[in-house]
Structures are given as C-alpha cells and as structure tokens.
Amino acid sequence: MNFPNIQQQKYLKELSKKSKLKLCIIGQDIYPEDASGIAFCKNKFEQLLSYNCSGKYVLKSLGYDLDYFKNEKKISTEELFIELLNKGVCFINISYELLTEIPIEQLEDSLSKFKTFNKFFLEKSDNIVLLGKTTTLKLFNKNYSEYTNFETLIHPSPRNKSKLEWKEIYEKPFLKDKYML
User: Fold this and answer.
1) Which of 5, 28, 42, 176 could bridge across to 48 with cysteines, CB 3.0–4.6 Å?
2) Residues whose CB falls within 8 Å of the CB of residue 8, separated by 6 or more in sequence, listed in order
C-alpha cells in the first residue's frame, strides 16, 4: 500500500477541520486483505461486517447497530469512518504496512514515518485506547513514549471471543459508555 494513500490523505484533511478529538483508537497494523487505508476500515460493508473482521466488533463497542449497515448501506465504509472522525472518534495503526512484511532493518524507519502521520491525530485526542496487549502495546511504548496516558484493551479479534474481557468490551457499547460518545 502506498503511504499515505488517497483515503488516508482524505482522513487527514478531515482531521484538519477538527480542533479536538474525544477518542483515538489504535491498532497494530493494516488488514492483510481489503484494507482501505483507514485503520479498522474495510472497502465494503460485507468485508467490514464479516465474522473475522475486528472493525466489526469495535463498531459494536462504539454502539453501532450492525444490522443497520447490512440493510441500509446509505453510506460507504469510508464515509462511516469520516462520520466517526467528525463525531470525535479516530482510528490509526502503529504500522500502515503488515509488520510481517517490513524487513527488520527497515522497521524503525517505517514506524517513524507512520508516527509522523499518527501524531496529527494523537495531539488532538483527549483519550487514547490501544487495542492489543502484546505487540500493539510493546510498539506503542517503544515508539510513542511521550504519550503516557492511555488505556490498553484486549484485541477485538474473534479469536479472543471466549474471554470474559472480550465479551465485556465487544458485545456491549463499552467504548460508547466509557467515553460518553
């Protein structure tokens, strides 16, 4: 994926219209397939609402009725994430390439380039939530050490569905309620 791609440029342009964000949600890296460029967003609702898509569960935690999108589809997935940005909720990734595809000798430079993009969002955010307690947390602590006020939650991957913590966060409007969205 070229960085920043058209969707990321549009997302950043929309951000420039905002003075403040309520919540910045941070993921590890892009989807291996059908990534739109905006973190947790897919190109089509059929992809975004599939069982194995983490974005589906984040939207549910933000209080969105997923059946509405299955039936209505009045907006695109990109428009939905722009709408969320305009409501004060942004999505970023620590890496905009799959971490497994970045040569180890280029990792630091790549993450630095992505951080330059991400800082525009982080600097406007009242709250930061990391989704992932292993790689996401480790990379954030190493590369974003100036940000010390954040919450770390279990990753929304359906592989974690059997865990009580996952159910408390992603089967309810947890993020909506906690951050008064």
Assistant:
1) 42
2) 37, 38, 96, 117
